[in-house]
């Protein structure tokens, strides 16, 4: 049986909800922006000049050049926020042991790739190459991440294991290069009579 009162009451509630949502959505509060223009600025030095000239309002890109960062710090009209989310890496081509043209690829060898951890002085790179604008990274998380505390024991063990040890790296690389058929001639590695490059 059709109840006219229930139908009208339900319809009234639905209309009130729909109309109030529309009115609520149209209520403007806070600052509203008429237009947002997103553009690419590949040079951080140019971006800083554009910020100073008020040509752009914000630059959201990591700056790892010390001169550019110093320019931001010295300008009282510019502000910055320091994060540790970006990173630089070295990626190895692991094809091989030989390339298609017959040249030896040392990075096809897992032990040589692992030895690169000992060869790279992450602390030196962070301080000298990046002028203190970087932190060493040994795992997928650097020590500035909040989640690092959850895995700190494992992370510290890896940091110790793979800490800078040039002599160890050279010994591992030499042993593996010989095992791959390379020989050292006048201080440079050769394979099948050609330099390993």
Architecture blueprint of SSEs:
Layout: H1 4-26, H2 44-52, H3 66-74, H4 110-119, H5 122-129, H6 152-161, H7 166-179, E1 183-185, E2 188-191, E3 194-195
Antiparallel strand pairs: 1-2, 2-3
Helix pairs in contact: 4-7
Please describe what this structure looks like:
The model has no long low-confidence stretch (mean pLDDT 86). By secondary structure, the protein is mainly alpha-helical. It has a three-stranded antiparallel beta sheet with strand order 1-2-3, with no helix packed on it. The longest helix is centred in the N-terminal third of the chain and has 23 residues, at 4-26. It is 42% helix and 5% strand. The protein is built from seven helices and three strands; from the N terminus they run H-H-H-H-H-H-H-E-E-E. The chain has helices at residues 4-26, 44-52, 66-74, 110-119, 122-129, 152-161, 166-179; strands at residues 183-185, 188-191, 194-195. The chain has two domains: 35-82, no CATH class; 106-195, Dipeptide-binding Protein, Domain 3 (Dipeptide-binding Protein, domain 3). The radius of gyration is 30 Å and the shape is elongated.
């Amino acid at each position: 049986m059709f109840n006219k009162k229930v139908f009208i009451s339900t319809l009234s509630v639905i209309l009130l909800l729909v109309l109030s949502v529309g009115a609520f959505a149209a209520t403007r509060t806070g600052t509203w922006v008429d237009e947002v223009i997103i553009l690419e600025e590949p040079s951080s030095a140019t971006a800083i000049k554009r910020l100073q000239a008020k040509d752009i309002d914000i630059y959201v890109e990591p700056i790892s050049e010390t001169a550019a960062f110093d320019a931001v710090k010295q300008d009282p009209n510019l502000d910055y926020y320091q994060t540790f989310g970006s990173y630089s890496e070295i990626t190895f081509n692991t094809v091989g042991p030989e390339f298609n043209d017959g040249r030896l690829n040392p990075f096809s060898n897992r032990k040589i790739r692992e030895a690169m951890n000992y060869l790279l002085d992450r602390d030196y790179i962070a301080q000298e190459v990046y002028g203190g604008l970087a932190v060493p990274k040994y795992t997928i998380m650097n020590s500035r991440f909040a989640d690092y505390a959850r895995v700190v024991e494992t992370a510290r063990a890896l940091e110790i294991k793979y800490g800078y040890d040039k002599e160890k790296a050279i010994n591992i690389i030499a042993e593996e290069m010989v095992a791959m058929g390379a020989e050292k001639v006048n201080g440079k590695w050769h394979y099948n009579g050609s330099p390993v490059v």
